[in-house]
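Q: For a teaching session next week I want to show students how multiple molecules come together into a single three-dimensional assembly. I've collected the sequence lines for a complex. Could you give me the predicted structure tokens for the whole thing so I can convert them for display?
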Amino acid sequence: GAVVSQHPSWVICKSGTSVKIECRSLDFQATTMFWYRQFPKQSLMLMATSNEGSKATYEQGVEKDKFLINHASLTLSTLTVTSAHPEDSSFYICSARDARGLSPLHFGNGTRLTVT
Amino acid sequence: QKEVEQNSGPLSVPEGAIASLNCTYSDRGSQSFFWYRQYSGKSPELIMSIYSNGDKEDGRFTAQLNRASQYISLLIRDSKLSDSATYLCVVNIVGGSYIPTFGRGTSLIVHP
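A: Of course. Below is the structure for the complete assembly, covering every listed component.
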């Protein structure tokens, strides 16, 4: 089946630093990748959608200068949380889909970010 | 009106029983429908995909799609304690790029 690898699985960083999260599709070409954030006991919140080679489309309320998304190839997307603050501590999950619009999403295992 | 509706639950069933999870969607043109399971602290995992009217069975799971009623369900037979999780209904909403739209999820608790 389709596999999405997300790294790191957890990270602790100090306030003011930046953190990069990688999301790779291992056995298919991910035309579209989605980045989600999830706080404890809450639903997944879509942050942004990225298509390979294009600028990401951010959801309302998500700061594009704070959450930098790069989708430079069909198998790799990165999310960089810049100048992280404690309120950015959350569970970040990427998902990927191939070019067929009817295809399901395949999720990475998520990254738990803690900002101290 | 939210585009994909699910009862948040919790739905509590005894071990060995059938759990029935339901979902409705608003976009009549949608063509692909999915059920995901999410354990606490983990990312969602795909359980079932369904694209045509009727039933689709995979082991203990049966997904049902009724396009006329814009209704999807997931039946879990012989429920196990390990089935306790949140079940997410996802519909690829037609609208340019088939945006995957999530229901809020139904919490299922299987008790001994």
